[in-house]
Amino acid sequence: MDMKLEVVVLPVADVDRSKSFYKESGFREDADFVVGEDFRVVQLTPPGSECAIIVGQGITSAEPGSVQDLHLVVSDIEAARAELIGRGVDVSETFHDAGGVFHHAGNECRASGPDPKGRSYFSFASFSDPDGNGWFLQEVTKRAPGR
């Protein structure tokens, strides 16, 4: 049986501000349902993704900005980074993990620049939405076997 991740709910303080941020970042607006004064659901999808995000009011008890380490996989990290910067997003420099595996929590073990060996899965850049929900761009140029 297939199980596909379809939606990630992001806790935000200001729905309109978040909606604007994600739309300006290139996400497609799929829906904006207002169901009363205290319930609103806004669904947005990153370009090329089958998984969407939902921001809204009355949809989660999580604290705004508490979701971290979401990954947007891109085929060219420098081009994706430049596009987001061109759209007004504050994106970190490209980095790789000094240990050579996967990025550590926070800024620990970040080495400047893309993976020096040019390996798929090993180059990153990061950004946050206005509430502090954290995202990574991860460059994947060749999928690992079975993926």
Main beta sheet: strand number and arrangement? 5 strands, mixed
- CATH homology-level superfamily of the largest domain: 2,3-Dihydroxybiphenyl 1,2-Dioxygenase, domain 1
How many domains in all?
2
The helix content, as a percent range, equals: 10-25%
Give the overall shape, derived from the CA principal axes: globular
What is the percentage of strand-forming residues? Answer: 25-35%
Note the run of SSEs as H and E: EHEEEEHEEEE
Structural class of the secondary elements?
alpha+beta
Terminal-residue CA separation: 16 Å
Helical stretch count?
Answer: 2
**How many β-strand stretches?**
9
- On the 0 to 100 scale, the average pLDDT is 94
Report on the architecture of this protein.
- With 147 residues, the chain is α+β, with helices and mostly antiparallel strands.
- It has two domains: 7-57, 2,3-Dihydroxybiphenyl 1,2-Dioxygenase, domain 1 (Roll), CATH 3.10.180; 70-139, 2,3-Dihydroxybiphenyl 1,2-Dioxygenase, domain 1 (Roll), CATH 3.10.180.10.
- Helix content is 14%, strand content 31%.
- A five-stranded mixed beta sheet has the order 5-9-8-6-7, with helices on one face. It has a four-stranded mixed beta sheet with strand order 1-4-3-2, covered by helices on one side.
- A hairpin with a 6-residue loop joins strand 3 (40-45) and strand 4 (52-57).
- It is globular, with a radius of gyration of 16 Å.
- The two termini are 16 Å apart.
